[in-house]
Write a structure and sequence with these properties.
The complex is a heterodimer of chains A (340) and B (312). By secondary structure, chain A is α/β, with parallel strands linked by helices. Chain A contains twelve helices and 13 strands. The longest helix of chain B has 36 residues. The chains are: A alpha/beta (340), B mainly alpha (312).
Chain lengths: 340, 312
């Protein structure tokens, strides 16, 4: 009340800020450094759910791991700015990162079948993670039970003593989620958390992630190639192509009025809801994803773009803000320029 | 429900013991057949080169060598079943008495060598995997190649010369404990250290690159804990399997090493028995050695099952 300006429209401080993230591949001997992710920016608000979409090899998984500084040689990453929960991690040491991982930002891996250790019980792995903080074994066990309940595992006391191979794929992914949530992170990165699962289980896991993020206020950044899940899951979406973000915006903006030709092509290539009578060949995006091992000028999508201009193969398009979303496309910016 | 669980968990043990007995029977039979294949007359071996034909005939009768082979075979199996392995004419004592006296020495030597190779080889392999591609990794790799190529008796003699004779740190032979055990155990385990380091290096590297470790790092688990708890545990199963396979080789090495160091174990006994053509003692050594390998094998298997819950 003493400060009137706080009463006005106040934007919440983002929980995760990534600016100018770049990841390179440096071959062992005498190779050129290959950029795999370039100029990756992301600003995630508390409790917000993002989806990063793109085809295989677009760099989405590597970008996600780079956000957590989890890339090993021959990969390396740098960023102009990384901030998690207000903590500046741009030039953080390994030890500082280790402290942040799990506690401020956690990750769920794609394949729950290989992400849990087969030789330790579920309880052992949960307690180990919880006890990164000064917690007694007894309290950690209680917390493990709570976590298992939270992720919807029946008979949690029984499951605590089970080994991962004794559980189904869906259960294992639930446990992987429980592990990720063990130290109450503010941001959760989920790398295709449902790809390895049955369709029905996929839906359950997505629903669980939504419920958990709403209940705990955890922001979620999900990597996926499944555009179909965006409406139910995400608030915002970032489309990646050739290691770059080509379009970011709210889900409704991007799905309803895609601006970038790649996004448009991607949406056209979804299996249609058209009736069987008018079933046509599935539209595909002609050509192949860019060969990252070849140095290229211009827009990475230009060779496959139906509307490419002459500048497209010459100059890399900068990202521009349009109606609260960002697009990196000469076509869009030039039409804006003529309109404005 | 409980009865069912017991029966389910008992079945593998029963099968296991059955397999062990079958192996043992095979070894007994093979040993029996071999005594007929080798060109030594048992009676002549007992009586010595100066014995007359009559004396030989008497000994033959007393050893019941005149009986049909099948009868001898059954009698042989029956006495083996009650651990009667015959009489050593060179030592003038029952074979089982000699071997029971020698077995603890060989067991001690073998277990020490195994411990040495697991601990040192495991540590080298683990560290090489952690520092993969670095200088340490390369040194361990080359070192392992060199060590594997060294003949065991030569290693034993060199160690004896340097640490026993020149430096005088360890006795030149005999069974004084614990100092007398050091050089024989090092000699017997050295090659094992080399291949253990290679296998652990491979399995640990694989574990370090796995999703399991990626997940642990993503949760901020300390690197030391990841290596010492998780990677060690993941690499332990495979190395025990290989060790179980190579036990026979280890025991074969023990014969040489015991001879070089004058270690009073079964290997040394077998070596002397061979020189004396003491057939019952040779057969007994082979049989007791096989039982030893079978028992250690079973123990290793149990440890492996304990280490990897998926095999339960």
């Amino acid at each position: 009340m003493t400060k009137p300006d706080t009463l006005g429209v106040q934007s919440v401080a983002p929980i995760l800020v990534v600016e100018g993230l770049r990841t390179f591949l440096t071959p062992d001997r005498g190779g050129v450094t290959i950029p795999l992710v370039e100029r990756f920016d992301l600003s995630v608000d508390p409790g917000e759910r993002w989806a990063i979409v793109g085809e295989s090899g677009s760099g989405k998984s590597i970008a996600a791991r780079s956000i957590m500084c989890l890339v090993d040689p021959p990969l390396s990453s740098t960023a102009d700015r990384i901030e998690i929960g207000g903590l500046d991690l741009t030039d953080a040491s390994r030890a500082a990162w280790r402290n942040v991982r799990g506690q401020r930002i956690a990750m769920i891996l794609q394949d729950p079948l290989t992400a849990l250790s087969p030789v330790f019980t579920v309880g052992n792995q949960l307690v180990e993670t919880i006890r990164r903080r000064p917690v007694s074994v007894h309290d950690a066990r209680d917390r493990s039970l709570d976590l298992l309940r939270q992720v919807g595992i029946p008979d949690p006391a029984l499951r605590l003593n089970a080994y991962p191979h004794e559980l189904s794929g869906g259960m294992r992914q639930r446990i992987a989620i429980a592990l990720a949530l063990a130290c109450e992170p503010q941001v959760l990165i989920a790398d295709e958390p449902t790809t390895a699962l049955d369709v029905t289980v996929q839906a359950q896991i997505l629903e669980l992630l939504v419920t958990l993020s709403e209940k705990t206020g955890t922001a979620v950044v999900m990597i996926t190639h499944d555009i179909g899940i965006l409406p139910e899951f995400a608030h915002k979406v970032a489309v990646m192509y050739g290691g770059r973000l080509v379009e970011t915006g709210t889900v409704s903006q991007v799905l309803n009025t895609p601006l970038h030709p790649y996004t448009q092509a991607l949406l056209r290539a979804r299996p249609g809801r058209s009736s069987s009578a008018e079933r046509r060949r599935l539209p595909v995006i002609g050509g192949a994803p860019p060969d990252l091992f070849r140095m290229q000028r211009g827009c990475p999508f230009a060779p496959r773009c139906e509307a490419a201009l002459s500048t497209c193969s010459e100059i890399k398009p900068e990202r521009a803000m349009i109606d609260g979303r960002r697009v990196a496309c000469h076509l869009v910016t030039s039409s804006m320029g003529t309109a404005g | 429900m409980i009865a069912l669980t017991v029966r389910q968990s008992a079945a593998p043990i029963v099968r296991r013991i059955g397999a062990m007995l079958l192996t043992l029977w095979f070894v007994l039979t093979l040993t029996f057949v071999l005594t007929f294949a080798i060109p030594t007359d048992p009676a002549r071996a007992v009586a010595g080169p100066k014995a007359t034909q009559e004396q030989l005939e008497t000994i033959r009768l007393s050893l019941r060598l005149d009986e049909p082979m099948a009868v001898q075979y059954v009698r042989y199996l029956a006495s083996a079943a009650v651990l009667d392995l015959g009489y050593s004419h060179s030592q003038r004592r029952p074979v089982s008495d000699i071997l029971l006296e020698r077995l603890p020495y060989t067991a001690l030597l073998a277990v020490s060598a195994i411990m040495f190779q697991l601990i040192v080889g495991g540590a080298l392999g683990l560290w090489a995997a952690v520092r993969s591609g670095g200088l340490f990794d390369k040194v361990v790799f080359v070192g392992a190649l060199v060590v594997v190529a060294l003949p065991q008796f030569w290693v034993g003699l060199v160690l004896l010369f340097v640490f026993g004779f020149k430096l005088g740190w360890f006795p030149l032979g005999g069974a004084s404990l614990p100092e007398g055990l050091v050089l024989p155990a090092l000699t017997l385990g050295l090659a094992g250290v080399a291949w253990t380091s290679r296998i652990v290096r491979a399995t640990a590297s694989e574990a370090l690159a796995s999703n399991i470790v990626l997940g642990l790092r993503g949760r901020g688990i300390a690197p030391r804990r990841i290596v010492l708890k998780h990677v060690v545990r993941l690499a332990a199963g495979p190395i025990l399997s290989v060790l179980a396979l190579d036990l026979g080789l280890l025991l074969g090495g023990a014969v040489l090493v015991e001879a070089v160091f004058g270690w009073p174990g079964m290997g040394n006994t077998a070596f002397q028995a061979l020189q004396q053509k003491d057939l019952p003692l040779i057969m007994g050594s082979v049989i007791v050695g096989s039982i030893f390998v079978l028992v250690i094998n079973a123990l290793l298997d149990t440890a492996r099952v304990y280490l990897d819950p998926r095999t339960r």
